[in-house]
C-alpha cells in the first residue's frame, strides 16, 4: 500500500509560457526541487486536426514532494503552472 501526504502524490502539471526550443534538461533542473519527474511532453490538439499540433502547453508528470507555485520563472521565462489539488497562490 502506498500512502501519500494529502494533496501530494503523482500529478500531471500543465505549464504555460515555455518556449518550444527549451531543453528538457532545463525543465527537469528547474522542477526537481518540487519532486521526481517521470515524464515531460508537449500537449497537442490531435483530435481537432489531421496531424498533431502543439498547443503551447508542456505536460510534466511529477511525484510531488512539495506544492508548486502557480506562477514561477523557468530559465528566465515567466510561466503559469496548474494541477489538480494545487493550493491557490498569488
3D structure, described in words:
The protein has a single domain, classed as Alpha-Beta Plaits (2-Layer Sandwich), CATH 3.30.70.330. It has a 5-stranded antiparallel β-sheet with strand order 2-3-1-5-4, with helices on one face. The chain is globular. A hairpin with a 2-residue loop joins strand 4 and strand 5. Helices cover 9% and strands 43% of the residues. The protein is mostly beta strands and 90 residues long. The mean pLDDT is 88.
Topology of helices and strands:
Blueprint: E1 9-16, H1 24-31, E2 35-44, E3 54-64, E4 71-74, E5 77-82
Antiparallel strand pairs: 1-3, 1-5, 2-3, 4-5
What keywords describe this structure?
5 strands, Alpha-Beta Plaits, 90 residues, 1 helix, five-stranded antiparallel beta sheet, globular, mainly beta, 43% strand
- Element order, helices and strands? EHEEEE
Mean pLDDT: 88
CATH topology: Alpha-Beta Plaits
Count of helical stretches: 1
CATH class categorisation: Alpha Beta
What is the number of strand segments? 5
Q: How would you classify the quaternary structure?
A: single chain
Unreliable parts: none
Strand adjacency order, main sheet: 2-3-1-5-4
Taking Cα atoms only, what radius of gyration do you get, to the nearest Å?
14 Å
First CA to last CA: what distance?
A: 35 Å
What share of residues is helical? under 10%
- The CATH fourth-level homologous superfamily: RRM (RNA recognition motif) domain
Structural class: mainly beta
Strand content: 35-45%
Number of domains: 1
Largest sheet, in brief, is: 5 strands, antiparallel
**Envelope shape:** globular
Query: Which second-level CATH architecture applies?
Result: 2-Layer Sandwich
